[in-house]
Structures are given as C-alpha cells and as structure tokens.
C-alpha cells in the first residue's frame, strides 16, 4: 500500500524521540516499511525514518529558537504540510492523520479524495466529537474502546491499541524499593464536568507515597514551572525526588535512563483524573516488569489487568492499600501481557487490517461515491 503518515511537528521522529504521539508514529512508520509498504511521512526535517520524508519545517518545534508567537509558527507549519499533501493528490492509497491538533487535516479530506484515517491521541471531549461529527466520510481509529464510548456515533474503525518496542524496555525481576510517577506536569485545569483537576495526578502520587511511607521518584516534562514550584518542589526530600531538569518542558532523560527507572520501581503510579485515552507509560513500565496502580479512569481498565499486571483502584486511599500489596503481582506476568497485546508488531497488524477494510469498502462503492 502507498501510505501517507501526517506526523506531529512538536518533536522529530526518530528512535530516540520523546513524547508519546511521535514515538507511536515513528514505530508505525518503521513497522509498515519493514512489511514492504511505501510509506511517506510528512513531518519535521530532522526526522530520521526508513521511509520517504517530506519536510515541512526544518526542525522539530522544540528545537527551534523562540519566536514572539509560537502558535503562528506551528499553524504555518501545519498549513505547509497541507500544501505539500495537495501537491501529491492521488499519490496515496490512504492518508493516516496523527497531527496535533488532529482537526486541520480533516478539513482537507474531501478535497484530497483519498480515504483519511485519523487516530485521536488525546482525550475524546464533546467539543472534539462534535467537530468530527461534521465529517462522516473521515474514519477514526480509537486507541481504546473508552474513546468510542465517550462520543459514540462517529465513523469508527476497530480499536488499535498503541504498541512499543518491548526489546527497548527490557524486563527486570529485581526491583528497588521506590514508587515511580512518569507523566506530563502541567497546571490544574477545569474539565467538562466543572471540576478543577490535576490530569496526570502527580499531586496524588506524592500524597500516596507519603501515606504509604514509600520513596517515590517523579519524572516528567514540566509544562508549568509555576505548578512545579508550588505543588512539587516544597515536598522534595531524600524520599521524594524529582529526576531530571524541572525547567525543561521537553524532558531530558534519555531512553536508557527511563528504562533503568522503570526496572528499579516496585510500581508505577497512574492516579489520572482525566479520561486517559491510553497511557503509553503504563505499557513501558509493564514491559520492564513493573506493575501499575492506577485510578479507574478512561482506558485504564483496558490496559491494566486488575490483579494480574497491577491494581485498578478508585481513589487515593485504595491506591495506598494497593501499594502495600504490590508484591502479590508477578512481574513476569506484566511482561507477558505487553508481549501479547502491546507490541509494535500488534499495532502495525491492527492498522494494516484497518487500512485494508477502508480500501475494500471504498472499492465496493458505486462509481463517483468513493
């Protein structure tokens, strides 16, 4: 198949890239190329991929010098991508949209005339769902069943779970004594229900560790330094540690450092307060043998097998109780689930099946309706 992948512009695509969305697109591109597909990636000029690359900006936005208006620069880059895609109208069998934000490419789907599949890598809100509903010809690939439940009625395909390179996240059966939190660190925001929330739950993780009397290491790209100074820094000590540079919005830990932290943790805490669309850090931890303790939000129950690869809990109190019995979880079982369900190979196979189904349905339409 001739496949166009529309990649996010904030980070480059490479084996070392940071950020969940670009890592998924990189792994998908490499997997599709290895299976003989003709893959063209529209993305940043510093991306390093095996397929064809159409650069629309010279470097990832995170690597460009600051400008007065970052929004304009990002938007201009996305518009350039659409222009490059227009120039190649009719050159692809399918276009797979992974943009951040997802919405711009969808505006061009009808004009391009090529089937477009959009993977939504964020929480499915009513605002997003309502917008998507105006484009019934566009296909949407959910990364969890929960996404479909949040806004039913869209032109959904089968669910395709995210996958990782399990070889990079090697198993360890000899953990240390600390808990681990990995996630974006950003300011509180108000959700659709009117609640003020800490989406990834780093403040909950700190309280859980304190109540459990267990050390915790915190890793994450700090998107709001004011939040870090107010909510995290006052708690830091010998037992509550922030790993990395809190003044970096990108996160500076190399892959090998992150893997070592996963391998040494007795559990990963994921006290999320939003409708988590998937949660890549959970399968990275499980690949290393580290069980996950997470709140029952979003896709958590689909990713974490309660009592087998960790515990799905309701609140802070039950998370503390779960931490006290985490040794009941077999670390080898965590690894086995990743190898069975959450590999790059499984993800690529899932998307291949979706592509073929979309193309088969197009071929069966009467002339002029494809």
Automatic annotation (TrEMBL):
<protein>
    <recommendedName>
        <fullName>Glycosyl transferase</fullName>
    </recommendedName>
</protein>
<feature type="domain" description="Glycosyltransferase subfamily 4-like N-terminal">
    <location>
        <begin position="19"/>
        <end position="133"/>
    </location>
</feature>
<dbReference type="GO" id="GO:0016757">
    <property type="term" value="F:glycosyltransferase activity"/>
</dbReference>
<feature type="domain" description="Glycosyl transferase family 1">
    <location>
        <begin position="200"/>
        <end position="329"/>
    </location>
</feature>
<dbReference type="Pfam" id="PF00534">
    <property type="entry name" value="Glycos_transf_1"/>
</dbReference>
<dbReference type="InterPro" id="IPR001296">
    <property type="entry name" value="Glyco_trans_1"/>
</dbReference>
<dbReference type="InterPro" id="IPR028098">
    <property type="entry name" value="Glyco_trans_4-like_N"/>
</dbReference>
<dbReference type="Pfam" id="PF13439">
    <property type="entry name" value="Glyco_transf_4"/>
</dbReference>
């Amino acid at each position: 198949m001739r496949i166009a992948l529309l990649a996010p512009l904030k980070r480059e695509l490479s084996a070392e890239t940071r950020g969940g969305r670009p890592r998924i697109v990189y792994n998908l591109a490499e997997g599709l190329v290895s299976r003989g597909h003709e893959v063209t990636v529209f993305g940043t000029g510093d991306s390093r991929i095996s397929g064809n690359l159409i650069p629309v900006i010279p470097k990832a936005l995170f690597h460009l010098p600051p400008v007065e208006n970052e929004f304009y620069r990002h938007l201009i880059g996305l518009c350039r991508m659409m222009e490059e895609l227009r120039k190649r109208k009719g050159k692809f069998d399918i276009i797979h949209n992974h943009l951040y934000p997802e919405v711009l490419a969808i505006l061009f789907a009808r004009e391009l005339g090529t089937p477009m599949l959009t993977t939504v890598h964020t929480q499915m809100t009513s605002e997003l769902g309502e917008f998507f509903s105006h484009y019934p010809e566009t296909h949407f690939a959910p990364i969890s069943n929960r996404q479909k439940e949040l806004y039913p009625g869209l032109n959904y395909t089968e669910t395709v779970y995210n996958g990782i390179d399990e070889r990079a996240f090697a198993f360890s059966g000899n953990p240390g004594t600390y808990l681990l939190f990995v996630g974006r660190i950003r300011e509180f925001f108000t959700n659709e229900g009117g609640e003020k929330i800490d989406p990834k739950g780093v403040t909950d993780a700190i309280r859980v560790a304190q109540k459990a009397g267990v050390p915790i290491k915190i890793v994450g790209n700090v998107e709001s330094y004011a939040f870090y100074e107010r909510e995290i820094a006052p708690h830091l000590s010998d037992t509550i540690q922030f790993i990395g540079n809190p003044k970096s919005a990108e996160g500076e830990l190399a892959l090998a450092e992150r893997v070592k932290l996963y391998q040494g943790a007795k559990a990963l805490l994921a006290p999320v307060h939003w409708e988590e669309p998937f949660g890549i850090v959970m399968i990275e931890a499980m690949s290393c043998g580290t069980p996950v303790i997470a709140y029952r939000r979003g896709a958590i129950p689909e990713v974490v097998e309660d009592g087998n690869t960790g515990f799905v809990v309701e609140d802070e109190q039950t998370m503390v109780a779960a931490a006290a019995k985490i040794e009941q979880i077999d670390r080898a079982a965590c690894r086995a689930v990743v190898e069975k369900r959450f590999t790059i190979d499984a993800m690529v196979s899932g998307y291949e099946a979706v592509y073929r189904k979309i193309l088969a349905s197009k071929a069966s339409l009467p002339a002029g309706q494809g």
